[in-house]
Fold this protein.
Amino acid sequence: MIELYGADYSVYVRSARLALLEKGVAHELRPIDAFASGGPPASYLELQPFGKIPALTHDDFTLYETAAILRYVDEAFDGPPLQPSAPRARARMTQFLSILDNYAYKTLVWDIYVERVSKTREGAPADEVKIASALGPARTIIGALEAIAADGPFLLGDQLTLTDCHAAPMLALFEKADEGALLLRSAPRLSAWLQTFRDRNSFKQSAPAGH
């Protein structure tokens, strides 16, 4: 029994769900709101002591940290491989994942998408200073990802990998902000990939409720 704990709005939870869906692994999403008043329940902290999402349980095995979950999903279950076998392609995948975690997540999702889209949708004003300050780093991030993206249907070329599963949730949110849509238009490989990836069943099935 595979149980994934987290909220469907989380890009990291969606990344893990995309990998599970692409592998064809049946699983249950157990709702955990990391932003709930008072934090996540004590029962969840027994699985993930830092209170972040997602966490995964597989029978008597518990795992947290998205990068670890992604690799486990690929290596523990049958289905199409989601990691390249060639050393250079595998290194490129790791590079993509590192850029997304270390640079893209905060800048593209929190500093731009949340400010421009989430807060204003709820009636709060966007922090224009924060957005303006994030545009330079965002331009660097998109340029770096565009430079290492392959010419192919997927970010590493012909094979769908964990790179696609991890990048799609972040870039899909980023594109919802006007600033994000504008920057992505300057990255033709990323833009073409994102538009194609949106049509995959896994992307549709993992969409947050109400989206």
